[in-house]
Amino acid sequence: MSHSLPKLHNAAWPGLVGKEPNTENPPIDLDTMLDYTAAAEVDGQKFDGIDLFLSDPHISIDSTDDALKALADKVRSRNLAVGSLVAPVWPVVGGGAANDPGEGRTQYLEQIRKACRIARKLEELGVRSYGVIRIDSAVDTTSWSADPDGNQKKIAETFRQAADIAADNGQKLAAEGEICWGGMHSWKRMVELLELTGRPDTVGFQADMAHTLLYVMGYNAPEDAILPPDFDWSDRGRLDDALKTLTAALRPWTIDFHVAQNDGTVFGSGAHDKTGRHCLPDDPNGKLDIPRHAGLWLRDEQRNLTRRFRHLCWDGCMFPNSVMAKPDTWNAILAAMISVRDAHGWQD
Q1: How many CB atoms lie within 10 A of CB 348?
Q2: What is the chain's percent helix, strand, coil content, to nearest 5?
Q3: Could you tell me which residues come within 8 angstroms of residue 301 by beta carbon, excluding any fewer than 6 positions away?
Q4: Based on the number of CB atoms within 10 Å of its own CB, is 191 exposed (0-12), middle (13-18) or buried (19 or more)?
Q5: Cα–Cα distance measured from residue 105 to residue 107, given in angstroms and rounded to the nearest whole number
Q6: Beta carbons of 110 and 62 less than 8 angstroms apart
């Protein structure tokens, strides 16, 4: 069955994350990522939109109104919409660690203010009507582990101040569950951080299927593993039970969702620390049944649709540029997205 919701988006940041100039995988410019997205088509269905990273060389966080109008025109000319935006909260792109109550917090919050301004401007320009602003702790796990409880409280305070800024601008913030960021590297610590923040109307969780699979395996947090180190991946029932435990804890907080595949390993590239390896949806080593396991996030425990967000995004970071240049790559990704919407979609 064909549904109109949730809308299907691609992500632009795989053109930047893990890419390095003067290598065989240099950054891919935004126009090219938009073209890849717009060209994909499966049985007459196309991507509805794109999610964006608010950082050079794609989009300056200090973009002028004229630059944002030009961006909106680029997106609109390809029959796409803008959904979620990634705020550049990391020190390497002008932000600061959320556990630093001094300059780090000041820089972090300034990036949130600027991201909210861009979000509102894109709404005024008519290319954005849904989506969140993505954040995370921007602190590495080693630094965080020096004082876990103290750092959790400091991060939560930064998140609360960020929530005030977002609420004043009519925006919501989603913290991505990714094992490489301290305080968010474990599913239990992620829930703890959201509870400490205590702003469920404004600060929620962004689930990425490739990253959350690593949660159940206990990468970077073996004390919180749900599956044992010697887990037999052919035991699909046990995998399902582990994912049900995970989603029961985090689904109530989930306000943004990434469809993805993972082969059960970690990978890092460029300046990006090791995190869940994103695989193509049809990778023979992929451990996830994408439409079935997506349903654990998109439906509650009574199998009712949550309808908590109006779009899904594909996140496929750190693929080689040669893979990203193939039209078949994006058609396969779009087909996987369509399979999720067919199974768990609805009409407007």
Answers
A1: 7
A2: 45, 15, 40
A3: 248
A4: middle
A5: 5
A6: no
Contacts of 132 (CB under 8 A, 6+ apart): 84, 85, 171, 172, 173, 174, 204, 206, 255, 256, 309
What pTM was computed for the model? 0.96
Q: Are strands 311-314 and 254-259 parallel, antiparallel or unpaired?
A: parallel
Q: Which two tokens stand for residue 272?
A: 């990006």
* Residue boundaries of the structural domains of the chain: 7-344
- Going along 149-239, which residue ranges are E strands? 173-176, 203-208
Q: Are 160 and 171 in contact (CB under 8 A)?
A: no
Per-residue pLDDT 10s for the chain (348 aa) are: 579 999 999 999 999 988 889 999 999 999 999 999 999 999 999 999 999 999 999 999 999 999 999 999 999 999 999 999 999 999 999 999 999 999 999 999 999 999 999 999 999 999 999 999 999 999 999 999 999 999 999 999 999 999 999 999 999 999 998 888 999 999 999 999 999 999 999 999 999 999 999 999 998 999 999 999 999 999 999 999 999 999 999 999 999 999 999 998 865 555 555 666 689 999 999 999 999 999 999 999 999 999 999 999 998 877 999 999 999 999 999 999 999 999 999 998
Q: What is the CATH class of 7-344?
A: alpha beta
Peptide bond connecting 200 to the previous residue in cis, omega within 30 degrees of 0 = no
* Total residue length of the chain: 348
Q: How far apart are CA 98 and CA 157, in angstroms?
A: 8
Sign of CA dihedral 343, 86, 201, 104: positive
Site of tokens 């593993």: 225
Measured CA distances, 76 to 13, 279, 334, 337 (Å): 19, 29, 19, 21
